[in-house]
Fold these 2 entries.
Entry 1:
Amino acid sequence: MTAGNTAISSEIRKRIEERLSEIESEHSVRILLAVESGSRAWGFPSPDSDYDVRFLYVRPRDWYLSINARRDVIECPISGLLDINGWDIKKALGLLLKANPVLLEWLRSPVRYREDRASTQLLRALAARVSFKRPARFHYLRLGQSAYNAKIGDRETVAAKKYFYAIRPALALRWLRTRFDPPPMDLPGLCAGLRLEPGLDEAIERLVVAKSQTVELGTGPRIVELDRFIEKEFGLANAAGVPDSVGDPDLLEDANLVFREIVDSGI
């Protein structure tokens, strides 16, 4: 399937880059990775979709040697279409050890605004060693069921765009059920890597193309192909058990080594 209009214009990229540089100066941090995390990275943006920029940053070494607890996030006020927030590298590494699905998506985002490759290679090497299936299944099932029950459920007519927030988690759940690698975050990548029922790919693509061309898709009758697939995957995920995996005993210490290397690289 095609991805719709996910390209980021040079003008927007410049605005985002300028804002990231301002954040570095204002907060005395160094940004390691900045990516798109919303509908533009998921492969189904509208013409007026926000730019959901998420970043990982590191502070000078002495900041981490303080006794008092300090904030480990940077949250910026939304400005126009720019929604920009970030996590400290220490927080990110703690979440990585828990196979946090959101962080793992950031590391695989198809839209990147800034990247320190030496640091992200270390992070992705660690991410490849975590046991991701249990937290990922719980995350996508909760995310998808919440969207489906709240906006689609038993209604006869639905806002068509609400399907996106159930179909992406449902596709990710099938990926987790049928493959061994982590699911991609974008809809085209998920569809390309799965064997889908006849007509399902076409139904998804029609929605993607329509959403890329208009601000409001409007409401309409239920889409049977999507309902059947979503309900099937949610049902299978609810019924399936994911066996406990054996943790990597060296992962914590290796994460500490990565943390020190990333912090020291900025000195």
Entry 2:
Amino acid sequence: MLLVLRLGVVAAAVVAALFPLPPALVERAYSTTAYPAWQRVATSLSDRVPFALLDVLIVLVGIRALVLLVRVVRPGSRPWLRTALGSLVRLASLAAILYLAFLVSWGLNYRRAPLVSRLDHDAARVTPEAASALAKRIVAGANRLHRAAHEEEAASWAAVEARLAPSFAVVQQQVRQGAPARPARAKRSVLTYYFERAGVDGMTDPYFLEVLVNRQLLSFERPAVLAHEWAHLAGFADEAEANFVGWLVCLQGPPSAQYSAHLAILWDLLGALPPEARQRAMRALDPGPRADLEAVAARVARAAPALRKVSWRVYDRYLKANRVEAGVASYGAALQLLLGTRMARGWEPAPRPQGRGGAEDATT
């Protein structure tokens, strides 16, 4: 009976992986209804624990997997083939349970309708001229905000969380998210040591819906990183959408958050602009913001190159396995979202005009 149950779980995971639900159905039945309710409960509970619950899960799963692998190699007095097959089935069912739990808890958000289906977005707006104009605007903003941002620097993650929470709620309504997500506190994890060596800024735990951060982040990096992870918590699994929503949260926040977003956007822009436009942007940048960008570059450079390369390759495959076809290149797609979305006023994204279709039209 147990064997049949385990094989059934494996079969269910295979079906879930190979035959995804339609995006419109995921959007309607999961991402804007069931998931927000679950997220508020899960994050509320995980926030009460001072350590990362994901660490506990990793240890428990690791021990269980190791025991099963040992049984494959050293079956003891029982027949080797029977014991090995039984252990392999248990391993497969464990992986299947973890995958199904991932999908139900957060992972189905990878299959939701794209954010552009709810915004006034036009790919024709994404031009080199628009990118240069954005660079000019971002550079001017970074110069203007630098002093106030450094005077307002938060001494703790808790202060950053408190300052970002109001704009996080507002932006979720602007992108027609439905019930707002609950912000999570920033936690450290045993994975922090991996983050530091691999150049990873943070991650959202897909099981307990908690936020884990790199402890080496500079003070002016913290708002943009936290807002990005909160966007994941709000159900924006795609990296480009999480970047875009996170930038909006910061741009509509206090000066320290605005400055953090300006530097994050500029970091991406400098890599996307032609050499001449890039040099023009750097010449217009004041010494303060330029020094901050150099400090970020120095922090990233401390990561182990080989580990960083392997880490990003693995993450690229993970994204593509979840049907994010651009892989890690989807980070650059955030700039396309920013350039192609009309802003109603300031940094408020305009909703999709009536008659141009919605989430269902765009995905069916």
